[in-house]
Amino acid sequence: MTTVVAVGTPLAEALSNVIQPKLVEMGWSSDGGDDSALTEYVILMLVNGKTQEQIAGELSNDLLGLGEGDTQALDFSRWLFEQVEFLNQQINGGGIQPSIETDPAQAIPSFNDQEAANNQAMMTGDGAMDADMSMGDTGAANDTIRQG
């Protein structure tokens, strides 16, 4: 699952706040703050669902005229997608859900784990044994066991 960016959302606003300084750092924008067109364009590329490679290609070829072999746009787009995921998790608590993987050491519960779980299941909230547990006559069980 990928994060969806929409115009006018807190995520888009947060991205705008981190993209502008990064563009200045890369030398692609002035520090004056008036040059927000490139920032808005980058946000719109995200809104339109462009991939890292597509964004890097548009920046490198169409907008910035970077030379062939220049990896700045690709580095920027990698950074951009990391920021999208990071900020989405901070703002929305979401993004890519981690897959549930079991630690190989915990894949099969040990005897002690099973015993603890059974003991826990038999206890009620006040620590007494569950009343439904059968504590019947053990003599009946011994009558059916063959003795040699």
Verbal overview:
With 148 residues, the chain is an all-alpha fold. The longest helix has 21 residues, at 72-92. The chain has helices spanning 10-26, 37-47, 52-63, 72-92, 111-122, 139-143. The protein is elongated and about 95 Å long. The termini are far apart. Helix 1 runs antiparallel to helix 4 (72-92) and helix 3 (52-63) packs across helix 4 (72-92). The chain has a domain at 10-92: Orthogonal Bundle (Endonuclease III, domain 1). Residues 95-112 and 128-132 have low confidence and may be disordered. The chain has six helices and no strands.
Shape: elongated
- CATH architecture identity of one domain: Orthogonal Bundle
Count the E strands: 0
Q: Helix tally?
A: 6
Which key features would you list for this structure?
148 residues; DNA, SC001; 0% strand; 6 helices; Nab2/ZC3H14_N_sf; Endonuclease III, domain 1; mainly alpha
